[in-house]
Amino acid sequence: MKSIVVLISGRGSNLEAILKARLPVKVAAVISNNPQAKGLAIARAHGIEALTLDRKQFASREAFDAELASRIAVFKPDLIALAGFMLILGDVFVERFANRIINIHPSLLPAFPGLDTHARALQVGVKIHGCTVHFVTPKLDHGPIIIQAAVPVLAVDNETTLAARVLKQEHRIYPQAIRWFTEDRLVIENRGVRVIGAKAEHMALFSPGVDE
Ligand code: GRF
User: Fold this and answer.
1) Is the CB of 14 under 6 A from ligand 1?
2) How far, in Å, is the centroid of ligand 1 from the Cα of 84?
3) What domains does the chain contain, in order, with CATH numbers?
4) What are residue 141's DSSP bridge partners?
5) Band of the pLDDT at 200, cuts 50, 70, 90?
6) What is the pLDDT of residues 55-105, one digit of tens each?
7) Which atom of ligand 1 is the closest one to the Cα of 13?
8) Which of 105, 118, 134, 171 is catalytic?
9) CA-CA distance, 14 to 6, in Å (whole number)?
10) Which among 103, 102, 159 is positioned nearest to 129, based on CA atoms?
């Protein structure tokens, strides 16, 4: 069975969705840069080793990344899943685990890379918003896209309501992407990621219901 290490910084709802999906994968460890992350308790409740590596204890990002990489390497994971991990990983780290790191981002990339995606989506008035699972490359939030889910943006939405609608979809697409990875079905090509045996509608989900 393949194994993954999940990196978190906070609440851990995506981690929980991954665990509840009962994927044919061993979650070898959960690592948080934030000692207060609620997701650490979720991991432990599932009997998974949960570690903290506090960025503040390191003099530089490079030193933090190097320690994080060696902690991860102990578990020899096939995949590293960033699930609400709020630190930017440097090029050396990303290249060491090239094509083996994936991330969930709360927007339809390439729209709204970076932070505050829901506020920015509301500010510019997009009618459709969503989330993306992608491979991580050195350029932030720009790696090959595996799966996306779209949701409507309503006139009455605020950041909280929109974030909640998107989050539901995050919980659908992240386990799906990991399932494909564990089944060796993700092929990175020039134009992005091809999913062996999947139809277009499996990779692009639409959620027409406002709050299904
Ligand atoms: C999610 O919206 C994720 O897309 C973003 O940070 C949030 C983390 O939520 N990167 P959680 O910790 O998985 O609940």
Assistant:
1) yes
2) 4
3) 1-97 (3.40.50.170), 104-212 (3.40.50.170)
4) none
5) confident
6) 999 999 999 999 999 999 999 999 999 999 999 999 999 999 999 999 999
7) 14
8) 105
9) 10
10) 159
